[in-house]
Amino acid sequence: MSLPPSLRQSVTPPELELIACQQLVEIVPLISMEKTAFISGAYGPLRPPHRAKIPIWMAVNLKQKKKCHIIAPVWLTVEYLQQKLTQETTQAHFTQLPFRFAEISRVLLDVASDDLQNPDKLRTLLKDLREARQAKARAGLENLEHSTLGLSNLSAMEINEIRPFFIQAMAVLGQLQPVFNKDRNTV
Q: pTM of the entire structure?
């Protein structure tokens, strides 16, 4: 059920996953298929054992029918995520990750965990990375100022999570700003 715009605070996680499923992923098809046109574009042809790039939604559909193997993106490996987790916990700024890493990793781990190397470790690393980034975001919001806020390299899901709080906080700061300016001018 869709809520009217006045009642919606932000996009839901399933909606973010749907948007993320438009991105391309590499597969190894297990079937042959001619080039097929969809609203979002034409994909194919699929010829086993040659790799092909198709949208995640199509790869998920084929995977569920056991008609392809999904190749993990380069950032969805234990080594890469371990390196990013180390950077995240030792540096003050957010490490750069793909903008939709949370949504894509969730979809791929749910549907194609058998195609990924060490999926349990990947889940653990993604959870640890998420917690480290959430702690950093909370710390950044504690030092919120009306004029500047440095939270670069946030992912779509992270932005979506802090959006309701941020909007309310900025509205309150906007209301308080004239009061602060008036006090400074009278002193």
A: 0.79
